[in-house]
Give the backbone structure.
Amino acid sequence: MTRSGSLRSGLRTLRPEAFGAEPGGERLARIRRSPHFEDGVFQNPGGTARTRPSGSALDLAKVFLDRDTRPRRSPRGTVPVHPTTVADLARPPATGLRLTWTGHSSVLAEIDGRRVLFDPVWGERCSPFPFAGPKRLHPVPLPLAALGPVDVVVISHDHYDHLDLPTIKALAGTDTLFAVPLGVGAHLERWGVAESRLRELDWHEATEVAGLTLTATPARHFCGRGLRNTQHTLWASWAVAGAEHRIYHSGDTGWFDGFREIGAEHGPFDATMIQIGAYSEFWPDIHMTPEEGMRAHLDLQGGRASSGVMLPIHWATFNLAPHPWAEPGEGTVAAARAAGARVALPRPGEPFEPTAETVPSEPWWRSVALAPEGGWPEAAARTAVKATAGSAALAQAGTAGDAAGRTAEDEGDPEAVPAG
């Protein structure tokens, strides 16, 4: 073996297991045949989105390390986690559809007698290393094993806060199937998931699992876990249709006009799970603000605000952006009110049925976030003469979330710059 070959072999040996594996063989050949793969990388709908923060690294560091705003990025007390039990989840949903948000983008969906687990992350950090990177701001509501049997695990993309090594290795010991975007199967195979249990899809492809139809739909994001971002694994949102119900999980995405097409083809949905956190002016193309998330929900529902329930996801569990911790929740409440749309606000671990008469609606985060000057929006709105004053108060509430500071080790990097 040549000296350079020996060096490459040594570097592969040192590669952390959490980095996963690069696609190769027939998997890579299939990637290259994809209509969404061009110039050696997967392309976003409507053109290439920025996948690195705009502005200088110094500007970004100043924002993340600012002494005045940094404490607001964490809760100031213990996040109220719902004490879900095995018995709670053993009872079938009365309506045939139940969602349990366990934090960040992880959701257990019980739909028409089947169970779908989206983006399960039970690890303590979303990082390739157990000692560094963004750390959980609240514990997982219940052990992974307490969920009971799962028919299919759905992964949106391969970033650390969506594809978690210890969680996947635990699930690899079960008989569940995995539905993943094209290329992501390489990671799972390295971690012990047999190829026969993988359903690896390109955008617009579908698979049948236990009577459910799962379709990989477009999203506007990017991929990567290792030292190099090769863009050889796809990212996706997902539409799931059962005999009676339809649901949608956005994964991570910027807003794009393709939501209307997804809704027209696969909706309307009884529930949408929409990313509304970890946004920033430094990376506007690949994450949505709460207002953009509500716009996406309405697009998916054909513009009908009365159709379906929106569940906000991708917030409250990890610090991944410079916005205040409570801002995504407050922004979603304001956007839902302005649109006249129905939004569910469960605590982490709190099961609810989207088609039931009522859904959780209490802004639970306020109990552990410092109230803004003048109080929370409802109180301020009652004393305002004009409706616009209430809207201003809603916007002001986004600055709430004053919190006990965390060490730089716990803060980690924003998700737009994948660890490693």
Summary: The longest strand covers residues 97-103. The chain has a mean pLDDT of 86. Residues 327-339 form the longest helix (13 residues). The chain has twelve helices and 16 strands.
